[in-house]
Amino acid sequence: xxxxxxxxxxxxxxxxxxxxxxxxxxxxxxxxxxxxxxxxxxxxxxxxxxxxxxxxxxxxxxxxxxxxxxxxxxxxxxxxxxxxxxxxxxxxxxxxxxxxxxxxxxxxxxxxxxxxxxxxxxxxxxxxxxxxxxxxxxxxxxxxxxxxxxxxxxxxxxxxxxxxxxxxxxxxxxxxxxxxxxxxxxxxxxxxxxxxxxxxxxxxxxxxxxxxxxxxxxxxxxxxxxxxxxxxxxxxxxxxxxxxxxxxxxxxxxxxxxxxxxxxxx
Length: 266
Hints:
Belongs to the peptidase S1 family. The protein is mainly β.
């Protein structure tokens, strides 16, 4: 598996000293983590999917969201180089024998995806067979407007609970963190990474990991009518560790709304 994890030290800007950006690290390459999350129950997050991918260099696990009967939204680096993928829906436990298992038919990676700075880190998976929707498997609405600074967002995924853990969780967890200003985020990761297409979120207090869930996981808010809306796709975190209080970066769904519609018709 490719690994971009680089341990860097964040130097505060003192007496004109230029900040050394922390390397933005794809969540797929540091494992799947949720720190201080809550266990989800079946039907609570019916858009959540698990993606077991296969590439020439090995296997990996990512998250994603159901946006249509045949379409899964995920991070671009989750399908970059992918040969095939198995998608799990209708479950909060990967081992659940009643889970629904689907296979990929097509991968659509954003044409301007950049694996170095993770710009345009968004992708789509078309399924071989359409999903059947019920209370436990439903598509999520996609944002057309941007959330304001300080908005609470929910992130979810299957993950370990500590940096020291080796194995990912069988159980789906979720937690809530806050949207922060991109300028604050750019001071940590640099302007080449934090562009208008990225939305950043801060770890909570008490600390919840900035790499909640796994790559491609949905970042969700409730609109004014109480309807869940996906505003982001989990993209990257810092290379220091999930238990460190640094922000995470997500691809803005509203920014890519036209691209998604062009590719899927949704």
